[in-house]
Amino acid sequence: MPKPTGPGRDPRAAEGAGATGGAEGAGVTGVAVAPEAVQAVEDAGAGLEPAVVAFGGGHGLAASLAALRQLTSALTAVVTVGDDGGSSGRLRAELGALPMGDLRMALAALAGPDGPPATWAELFQHRFAGSGSLAGHAVGNLVLTGLAEHTGSPVAALDLAAGLLGARGRVLPLSTAGIDIVADVLGLDPAVPGAVTEVRGQAAVATTAGRVAGVRLAPAEPAACAEAVAAAHAADWLVLGPGSLYTSMLPHLLVPGMRQAITTSRARTLMVLNLAAQPGETAGYTPQAHLDALRRHVPGLRLDVVIADPSAVPEPDPLARAAADLGARLHLAPVRVPGAPVHDPARLAEAFRAVFARSGAGARSEAGAQSAAASPAVRTGPSGPPAPSVPRAPSAGVSRRPVTKYPSSGGAVRRTPFGEAKE
Description:
Elements: E1 26-28, E2 31-33, H1 35-44, E3 52-56, H2 58-68, E4 75-79, H3 86-95, H4 101-110, H5 115-125, H6 139-151, H7 154-165, E5 170-173, E6 180-186, E7 196-200, H8 202-206, E8 211-218, H9 226-234, E9 237-240, H10 245-254, H11 256-264, E10 268-272, H12 287-297, E11 305-308, H13 316-325, E12 329-332, H14 345-359, H15 364-374, E13 392-396, E14 413-416, E15 419-422
Parallel strand pairs: 3-4, 3-9, 4-5, 7-13, 9-10, 10-11, 11-12
Antiparallel strand pairs: 1-2, 6-7, 6-8, 14-15
Helix pairs in contact: 1-9, 2-4, 2-14, 4-5, 4-7, 5-6, 6-7, 9-11, 12-13, 13-15
């Protein structure tokens, strides 16, 4: 069923989906989001600018944020927290800290363009050289980890850092506790080519030599950050990608509370496709295979628009049909840096601007229904690796680390420059 949209929407409509509570608030798969929290987020972003929530991690999310900040200040980044490599992985293993690397990059993408905020952003991105215990650590990871320990809340830490960097928008974690990504991978055992091996950890999944058949999270049902859920319900647009399909984008749709928020929000939903398949994680995938993987993992997901660069789409018709299967129309636009396989924030901003202007207010339900009806539910070419039922090989890449020490969002409500936030 299409999601309703349009201006003047009642923020208390969030109570209708999966509500378990009464007047005290709306339960969204274990995340209690009070109507007034949604109202506070809407009030903070009220005005002519669209309220946008961007989901992802790493360089893909940073490119999306660098583009979106040119169009709106009512911007929230929701960042995956599954990183277990590099500086983030070391702090996670040693301190039980929330992995801060992707969160740091999102803050830097939203930082003020000049003056002290720009200097702070450069410092946050600086990595220590040498071979000592600090070698390889990003300054921002250490600062954010220290702020989170000091305040007892990663959300409060991110808000404080956002003020320091003059961020145009807000950065929130997908969950206030770290998660692990667990993948079923084909082809890792030469003796049994069809066997499935369990690979655990974002770094291991992203670099696997096999073919990813599917992913899940550990724990299986982590709690979503309450502030991020409220932002999704109050948004005009939800933006997925670009970024690693299995380790940056899908985790947002596998956290029950966030999946519920995305699929029941009145916002329109947009996905930016990657410019190429990613070695290891999505090797051999066609553009439409990325959409098919989303549909397999989240059958209830509906999109409104899929943005793709023409140079990355050798066959537009199959991709348009795959998009229509999700209720979306395909928007082809040049969004890459000429001669490089990376997104150009300026070009991506123009694509976002065109999509936002064309969609207008309240167009979501009609556009999605017409797009799905206009195209046959037929796809050509491979639709991504199947989910086989075969014996499992021994687990690979299993990690053992301390449980994240930070509590889930909840409890007292504090005032921030972005509205009310729960400690």
